[in-house]
# Entry
Amino acid sequence: MVERRPALTMLGHLVMWLGVAIVAFPLYLAFVASSHTAVDIVQAPMPLLPGANLWETYKTALLGGGEGAGSTAPVARMMWVSLVTALVIAIGKIAISLLSAFAIVYFRFPLKNVFFWAIFVTLMLPVEVRIMPTYKVVADLGMLDTFAGLTVPLIASATATFLFRQFFLTVPDELVEAARMDGAGPMRFFKDILLPLSRTSIAALFVIQFIYGWNQYLWPLLATTSEDMYPVVIGIKRMIAGGDAANDWNVVMATALLAMLPPALVVILMQKWFVKGLVDSEK
Amino acid sequence: MEKRVLFRSPWLPWVLLAPQVAVIGVFFFWPAGQALLQSFQVQDAFGMSTEWVGMDNFKALLADEAYLGSFKVTALFSLLVAGLGILISLALAVFADRIVRGAMVYKTFLIVPYAVAPAVAGVLWIFMFSPTLGVVAYALAGLGVDWNYLLDSGHALTLIVMAAVWKQISYNFLFFLAGLQAIPKSLIEAAAIDGAGPWRRFWSIQFPLLSPTTFFLLVINMVYAFFDTFSIIDATTQGGPGQDTMILVYKVYNDGFKNGDLGGSAAQSVILMAIVIALTVVQFRYVEKKVQY
# Structure
């Protein structure tokens, strides 16, 4: 700070409080709703202070068997599906991208530029744009309602390859020369030198891709039809059916909070890598 | 750019590339090619026969009032989301940059919406604004506003814009904060010594130096509003009332999956691809400029 202006600092705190309030209010309301019974919430206006039904609501949500009009499948299973999906997408993307970036940066081979551009083009087209035909391909391969169908089509993207390529280009050539002089082959160099150097990039990318995988919506909506393959984000949507009074809003809100808990924890606990990953992957 | 020292192997690079190429080939190029092909065809309702119709799908689309309406809604929606999102986050970032005490706490709170799935954000917002049980709708009724997003298209658009902006604040905020912190302190101090107050310093130094970040965020937010808001809309208005919040990407899904119009949906996909490619090219040209800076 360059000067003391108590009034301006006060204003600053005020603005930040306002920002935090806007961000936190929907979350607070969801928490309050999840601590009441369904009947309490339907009577407008709903209470604004936490009630005594917290334990019961979360038990109903996690184990299933609520009385809402929509789906009442157990959320515990959905959380498991989401976790597996998010991990496979994050780790799968990082693994195949590390390998292909290594090939593109450290080898010379025919058609190298063709492959480079083929991967580059995939950066441009999100799943949303090519849903119909992708759905058809996955259906033809018999991959609907499987973990493979949920994850593999989403691994097809180039962001991670580009991040690693940028990073590999900054690794000094002397390291390769030294490794070669010591008799290390390409895979040895990759495993013992390149991978340890890439640790921070990998952590940063993991945070971003985990959240990306966890929060997928459109693709799992199409690729899953049976209740025990719903990721939790889809599960919430399926719980809401019919009129407002017909839904167990307390269970829906409890599920919403459960659904955001793992990615929120990842973001908060890995804040440093998250910010790095976000800023780097968009450069 | 290339490395000076390279490895040599006749087969290893192919093996390393194989997984990536297999995945993008099967799940990217094949479907994208199909979309392009289908956009020139018409299928009957049972998928029994396919007829080549050339540009007819595109002609039909461009003559379709609903499709042109969807373009207008998308333009309005993405401008509102990008504009509001950028303004709010810029204000927050400028003040966060000033504050010394407690900055970390504020920051931690402000990044949480990034972790919330757009569909979940949509559900949180309809819960607040539902005309029958929403707390905010109740408060609005007390103020004499008859809020009903299911009937009033203005209300519906307001709702999805609010939910979309809420979700995107974290992202914009982090980029603006990083941009502000990259501005050399000596510049600010020199201006302060010359007698420039905070307001003047913001407009004459910080805002111009932030312009690359702002432009970058403008493109990213447009793309976000075009595609990632699909799930917000599906969880809240589902394109309604009528067609009034039917943005382009929602219409692709709606026409293809719900109405079974494969050719029309594919033609829409192709138009959307063209839009994304145009946006990406704009963004990359700008990125190159920044490198030369």
About this structure: The two ends of chain A are 29 Å apart (CA to CA). Chain A has a mean pLDDT of 83.
